[in-house]
Amino acid sequence: MPILQPLGHTFLLFLEATGRIVMFTSTAVSHCFRPPIYPRLIIRQMIEIGYYSLPVVGLTAIFTGMVLALQSYTGFARFSAESAIPNVVVVSITRELGPVLAGLMVAGRVGAAMAAEIGTMRVTEQIDALDTLATNPFKYLVAPRLIAGLTMLPLLVLIADIIGVFGGYVVSSYKLGFNPATYLKNTIDFVEPQDVISGLVKAGVFGFLVTLMGCYHGYNSRGGAQGVGAATTNAVVSASILILCFNYFITELFFAR
Amino acid sequence: MTTNRQANGQDEAVPKIRIRGLHKSFGDKVVLDGLDLDIGAGHSVVVIGGSGSGKSVLLKCILGLLTPEAGSIEVDGENVVGMSNRDIERVRRKFGMLFQNAALFDSLPVWENVAFGLIQGVRMERGAAKAIAIEKLAAVGLGPEVGELSPAELSGGMRKRVGLARAIATEPEIIFFDEPTTGLDPIMGDVINDLIVKCVRGLGATALSITHDMASVRKIADRVGLLYEGKIIWDGQVGDIDTSGNPYVDQFIHGRAEGPIAMQIRAL
User: Fold this and answer.
1) Is residue B82 in some structural domain?
2) Do B166 and A125 touch (CB under 8 A)?
3) Residue B264: burial class (beta carbons within 10 Å; 0-12, 13-18, 19+)
4) Number of A:B CB contacts under 8 A?
5) Is B188 contained in some domain?
6) Is B99 part of a structural domain of the chain?
7) How far apart are the C-alpha atoms of B184 and B180, rounded to whole Å?
8) Residues B9 and B41 grouped into a single domain
């Protein structure tokens, strides 16, 4: 069966990769809870992931909020439903666009850098060197990054939410002729805690996924510069796809009735 | 050597490292095929062999970085094959290793590289560890100002020296050298060889080196083993290599293309 053979082969490869990722994840997570913990490294990664991603995430959020107000205005004006714009902006940003876009931007910025750094450490034997110096690479390299990703992305998204809503507010009040006070009041009246909380939960999951993929592909990279390049690409692509997949399932968990 | 052995208080019958029947393959390619090797305490053994003959794989198996399919590796009588992670970490504290390209951590300054095993492994306080790091840098002929540099700013010879300082910083019982002179000019190679001899003697450590540089072999080895097709096919005192009468050894030490060792020129 020459048609089924490649199909089966691909499926087996997929299962193998999934198994490897699950084992990597369980080892990595178990090392997050067992001493020694490296606070210095966790803080360094938090600064790298959280603080240095602020400009990128902030710019993404403000333009998204602005364009969202503009687009929904052109749509809603046809039904004379312009007053719904503050609600549309705040719900879209907090539930979906804030976490997803921040996750994707961080995947491009941080996930790629992690895969490249850890991948280079692998091919230059620095990871073997860690082992010979009685330091577990999972504890030293992977755990601090996972912890930082899991905690920093929700904070980033919280800031992105505020900036995104502000973007919509600016466009609505200065370009579309909304009353600024009414716009803000509508926004605050309409937003539910669950909108924001679901977005922050997503952000935590996305942060974990981005750093996990960066570490996994870097840790398992092989074969010099080309291998590191492939690891970097795979880290970004797999993290982005996982973000979009998990986004759907978390949304269903929170909002499906 | 006898004095070294007595100084270490080891029974001659129990080698520091005893390897029996070691098998390791990657896919279809058999790299180690029933390798046996004994390394006595305080001895310096050098394993020679062509590129791709599995010398690095041997070191990585002993360190537990690779898991062999069969065979045993005893370090001080403990079999490390199939050992739990916790025990492997404990056994690894006996080891120091100089990597081929030094494998310095480029995110850390030189002194922190040297002190790494002390700060992370032994949990020493950073100030005290830095003092020891500077002392170890001096032992390999580098001044304290080098300690503040980043590894990217060092030349090849300096990187090797820093790697050596890092390998000896925790005063390990066993030190591995992975091609210590590869990529260095002959003079710097000799400087590194001298430093290796000095450091190993100074610590009374057991050393296992892999190389294909014969000048290095003659300088640092007590005993030499030739690795070919996954086995140690000749093993003897360094003084005997020129008169071994073994055609494989003769071909290797004289670097002849013709002989019983057929180099794999084409890929499989």
Assistant:
1) yes
2) no
3) exposed
4) 54
5) no
6) no
7) 9
8) yes
State pLDDT tens for residues A136-173: 899 999 999 999 999 999 999 999 999 999 999 999 99
Pairing between strand B70-75 and B223-228?
unpaired
Q: Residue B250's domain spans which residues?
A: 1-94+172-183+194-268
- Report yes or no: A126 at the B interface, CB cutoff 8 Å: yes
Domain co-membership, B35 together with B63: yes
How many separate domains does chain B show?
Answer: 2
**Nearest neighbour of A134 by CB, restricted to B60, B107, B121:** B121
Smallest Cβ distance to A134: which of B92, B105, B106? B92
Same domain, B176 and B61: yes
**Best CA proximity match to A202, nearest among A248, A148, A138, A145:** A248
Q: Are residues B179 and B89 in the same domain?
A: yes
**ipTM of predicted assembly, 2 dp:** 0.82
Residues B178, B199, single domain; the answer is yes
Q: Global pTM?
A: 0.85
Domain map (residue ranges) of chain A: 38-255
B101 interaction partners in chain A (CB closer than 8 Å): 124-125
Instruction: Point out the residues of chain A with pLDDT beneath 50.
Output: none
Nearest CA in chain A to B91: A134
